[in-house]
């Protein structure tokens, strides 16, 4: 499966979130992660993925913040839900 990259629209939304003084810390962290992954194959770290999840669930997060958080979260490595056999 090809690596995911942040789209131009998501990068624009992320930049606007970073410039918004009222944006939450979680929204800014996920926006920064999404923006840093523009044009290259990178993955969102576990800490930022957690913050992106918080940003998505917070009622205070703007639509742009949600777009940036969703982009960052979609680029996080998937954790397997299967348990390994002993």
Task: Give structural notes.
The protein has 86 residues and is mainly α. Helix content is 55%, strand content 0%. The protein has 4 helices and no strands. The longest helix has 12 residues, at 25-36. The chain is globular, with a radius of gyration of 13 Å.
Describe the SSE topology.
Elements: H1 8-18, H2 25-36, H3 46-57, H4 63-74
Can you give me a brief rundown of this structure?
By secondary structure, this protein is mainly α. The chain has helices at residues 8-18, 25-36, 46-57, 63-74.
Given helix and strand content, the structural type is: mainly alpha
In round numbers, the mean pLDDT is 78
Q: What is the quaternary state of this protein?
A: single chain
What is the total tally of β strands?
A: 0
Main traits of this protein?
single chain, mainly alpha, 86 residues
